Automatic annotation (TrEMBL):
This is Tryptophan--tRNA ligase, cytoplasmic. Gene3D superfamilies: HUPs, Tyrosyl-Transfer RNA Synthetase. NCBIfam families: trpS. It comes from Heterosigma akashiwo (Chromophytic alga). The keyword Transcription does not apply. PANTHER family: TRYPTOPHAN--TRNA LIGASE, CYTOPLASMIC, TRYPTOPHANYL-TRNA SYNTHETASE. GO terms for cellular component: cytoplasm. GO terms for molecular function: ATP binding; tryptophan-tRNA ligase activity. Belongs to the class-I aminoacyl-tRNA synthetase family. It is an enzyme of class 6 (ligase). InterPro entries: aa-tRNA-synth_I_CS, aa-tRNA-synth_Ic, Rossmann-like_a/b/a_fold, Trp-tRNA-ligase. GO terms for biological process: tryptophanyl-tRNA aminoacylation. The lineage of its organism: Eukaryota, Sar, Stramenopiles, Ochrophyta, Raphidophyceae. It is found in: Cytoplasm.
Length: 358
């Protein structure tokens, strides 16, 4: 993959006639595969579709889960692009021995409401559970499976002899939505529409395999745009865990819970004492509240100012945490209000197999 350049960001702004998303401006989405080729096609008047997804293993999404969805929502709006969202309820059953198939299927629908709350256009968005949509995907899955040997799959994904055969076969299921023929109804029968996949960098292996088989199946290679990882509250050494509530802020948290988690658990790059902080300032590279502001504070100038003042010792850790708490309470409050408006009827419409508007 290649780094996204300032020239590419400027080109995206020119083509979409709007300012680039803050995650592009700040290098959160930082690398790509074949983005230039996709923009060339778009500039010549060719439409592309977006593909992203979620493995439904927990009831609520945390802030890190929002990255691909908020960014994809911006892309959908900026490029006026149709979108398919894959919910891999089959994968979570195969890879998590604690979950039943009924539970992963239920979680797919619960998570879909959070995804819809990110602001997608219902006329341009098709959300599907693998278990529901499998009969439309299966012909493509089989074609992909025949192109990938067990040795290749083991080399890419690290499968061992004790992995169940469902796990070994699954990569083809995640690859499948990269090809427009998987969506004969939503994409109106197109077999040539290019695909752009915004995802976290750890998903790249799936799509390297996909890009490898694409020409053999007669399709364009999907383009990719990768995001960095979102840090857990504990900072760089920690890992965000859906099972440890203290490591992350959830879109279901109350304002009081957000305040408590940031104040209690967010790793600080500030100094031990007030005097030292005034003298030495904070290390904003490791300070989690400042890093979270880089993700969620829209105003570039204000972010720069906070960074300068915090590094210089003019701002204290508690003050930066207070700014972050306000930003996150507003973000999560807005999300919860949008989710509350997602009725079962709205959900059913997003998940109905239908032609998309593009």
């Amino acid at each position: 993959s290649r780094h996204i350049t300032e020239d590419q960001i400027a080109r995206i702004e020119r083509l979409t006639n709007r300012r680039a998303h803050r995650w592009l401006r700040r290098g959160v989405f930082f690398s790509h595969r074949d983005l230039t080729q996709l923009l060339d096609l778009y500039e010549r008047g060719e439409k592309f579709y977006l593909y992203t997804g979620r493995g439904p293993s927990s009831e609520a999404l945390h802030l890190g889960h929002l990255l691909p969805f908020h960014f994809t929502q911006y892309l959908q709006e900026a490029f006026n692009a149709p979108l398919v969202v894959q919910l891999t309820d089959d994968e979570k059953f195969l890879f998590n021995d604690k979950l039943t198939l009924e539970e992963t299927h239920r979680l797919a629908y619960a998570n879909a409401k959070d995804i819809i709350a990110c602001g997608f256009d219902p006329t341009k968005t098709f959300i599907f559970s693998d278990l529901d949509y499998i009969q439309h995907m299966y012909p493509m899955i089989v074609k992909i499976q025949r192109c990938v040997t067990f040795n290749q799959a083991r080399g890419i994904f690290g499968f061992t002899d004790s992995d169940n055969i469902g796990r070994q076969a699954f990569p083809a299921v995640q690859a499948c939505p990269s090809f427009p023929a998987t969506f004969p109804v939503p994409l109106k029968g197109s077999r040539t529409m290019p695909c752009l996949i915004p995802c976290a960098i750890d998903q790249d292996a799936y799509f390297r395999m996909t890009r490898d088989v694409a020409p053999r199946l007669g399709f364009k290679k999907p383009s990719l745009i990768h995001s960095k990882f979102f840090p857990p509250l504990q900072g760089k050494g920690g890992k965000m865990s859906a099972s440890m509530a203290s490591t992350s802020i959830y879109v279901s948290d109350t304002a009081a819970q957000i305040k408590k988690k940031v104040n209690k658990y967010a790793f600080s790059g500030g100094q031990e004492t007030l005097e030292l902080q005034r003298e030495l300032g904070a290390n904003i590279e490791v300070d989690v509240p400042y890093q979270y502001l880089r993700f969620f504070l829209e105003d570039d100038e204000r972010l720069e100012q906070i960074g300068r003042d915090y590094k210089a010792g003019k701002l204290l850790s508690g003050e930066v945490k207070a700014i972050l708490i306000e930003v996150l309470q507003e973000l999560v409050g807005t999300h919860q209000a949008r989710k509350a408006a997602v009725t079962d009827e709205v959900l059913a419409e997003f998940m109905r197999v239908r032609e998309l508007d593009f």
